[in-house]
Structure formats: structure tokens, C-alpha cells
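Review session, final week

We close the course with one last complete record, chosen because it touches almost every idea we covered. It is Aspartate-semialdehyde dehydrogenase, a protein from Dysosmobacter segnis with 363 residues. Go through it on your own first, then we will talk.
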Amino acid sequence: MKRYQVGIIGGTGMVGQRFVTLLENHPWFQLTAIAASARSAGKSYWEAVCDRWALDIPCPEAAKSLTVLDAEADAEKLAGMVDFCFCAVDMPKDAIRALEETYAKLECPIVSNNSAHRWTEDVPMVVPEINAEHLAIIEAQRKRLGTKRGFIAVKSNCSLQSYVPALHPLMKYGLERALVCTYQAISGAGKTFQRWPEMVDNCIPYIGGEEEKSEQEPLKLWGRVENGRIVKAEGPAITAQCFRVACQDGHMAAVFMKFKDGCKPSMEQIKVDWAAFRGPAQELQLPSAPKQFLHYFEEPDRPQTRLDRMLERGMAVSLGRLREDTQYDYKFVGLSHNTLRGAAGGAVLLAELLCANGYIQQV
């Protein structure tokens, strides 16, 4: 099989570094080009990142010698080198929106980790197991952009992966509302403890914009395609509080859920639904898909961040502590790896889904 030629825009940051490692030996994708800011352009990738390599695994040797392109000035050159690009740039949102549309109009599909286009009405925000049908909106987006191949698809906020997949198979019972408290690792801010010593032995009860994303983005995931746009769902209502905690990787969520009167499933039924939950990622046997998406732990002290964040190569969601609540119907704990399932790995899985469904084709 000829592999897709892939570029990374914003390849020097922590999520960009994750993309680089995930593309090493990928059966479908071959890393061909890396772009970043003008200050990194012209250097070899390793020259650009050696002092800032943030992962606990080594940089792939094949990536080290790639010459970094200027994400803005070299856009046309990069677009001509690849079949599609991942995007993880650190720029103001308006600049990101403009940059991603520039690449799309150059007929280069963009699979974005950024939040800038998550609320653009004809840009699909997809978790492959949950709302793969939203990819149909790409046709309308291409008409707006005037493109044949180019488009933008995005993944959702990384913290959503720790609770939305668990809520999704329970929607059929009339899930009415949920309260979520997330405890988010420092890598979600692109940091390590060496770069952020203030986080050692600390918890910060604020992450800018995170609570709004946690409450609103699930409604787009659960929305519907209608008249060339994605209309968000009216519910369930979600209220969220988000904390930054002293973990390197792994976002945890404490979740409380309430069902409509007379619709409450049993705990046994919830566990059966979680164990059986599959989506197109599993049905298509995409390379990055976990065999089982949701894993439930019966032990009272699981899931734990250090023990369980790498479950199924960091692409599965760990659940535990399901029990009845005095004010809501049930409460439980969820855990996901934020830079794998939540960020770069989730984007790679989305790209695999796009390729499998013919939205990205080899040039």
C-alpha cells in the first residue's frame, strides 16, 4: 500500500511532537514535511526542538533531519508536497482560522487539533466513535471555500474524551443533565514540570475558556447536519468546573448524571452498554483505534492516572466508581490520555476515518 504523504503545521510544540512520534511507522501515513513559525524555519527539525523536546520517548530519527518550513510563507510549497496536513499551531484564533483556510483553499485537507474552527458551522468536529456522520458537511464546506479537495476537520477539546464517550451510549435512556469536574494534566497546557515548577505540589482551579468548551462542545458532537451546517443539540445540559492538577499526562473527570423521570437504567445495564460500545473506528479497524473503546474497572480505586492513561496505547477511555448519588441518579469517574486520545492521537484517528471514507485522497 502506498502511504499518504503527510505534513505537520506547528510541529515543534508538544502536540506537534506527539504527531511526529505517532507518524513513525504508521501503516498508512508517512511524515514528509514539518512547518512551524518563522523563527524555526530553515533549521533541521532537531535543531528547532532539541532543547524543547517534551516527551518521554525519543524523537524519531527520520524526522530529525527534515528542514522546517515557514507555516505561513511556505504554505503553497507545503501544500504541494503532501496529501494532507495535521495542524497544531500556537497562534491567535483569528490567525489560525485564516491559516487553516489558506491551506484548504490550496487544496490541502487540514485535520486540526486547534479550537479556532470548532464552532464554524460547516466544519465537522468529530470523535470517530460518536459522530462520524458529521463528515457529510464537508461537501457544503467545499462549496463555500470553492475547493475540490481542500477542507478543514477538527477534533474536540481534549478533556471531553474523559466523559463524553461514557455519556454517549446512555443518551438513549433520556440523559437530562450532567455535572462534570475535570482534573487536567499540565501537558494540556503544553508544559512539563521542568518548565512549570509552580505546578509541583499544586492545583489551580481555573483554566481559561475550558469550562465553556466542556459545556458547549458536546452539544455540537451530538448535533445534526441540516441545510449545510451543523446544528447543535439542545441537551443534555452540562455544567463543568475545570482544574489544573500536578500530573504530567492524563485528564480525569468526576461525572454526575441525571436521567428523565422513569428512564433511569440500572447500573448493570450501564456497564453492559459501556462494554458493548463500538463505532466506525472499531468497525473499520482503523490503525489507531482501540479494540475496546470504554473499559470499566470494578476496583474501588481505579482508574488511576499513572496506571491507566496508556490503556490501549493511550487511545481507550477508562471508567470506574459507578454508583448511585443522593442528588443525581449516578456518578462515576473517567480518564483519558490528553495528548494521545485527546489531542494528536485523536486527530490521527480522525484522519484515518477521513481516508477510509474517501474524503482524503492521494494526489
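Two points worth writing down before the exam:
The chain has two domains: 4-157+344-356, 159-337.
Residues 256 and 326 are 10 Å apart (CA to CA).
Good luck, everyone.
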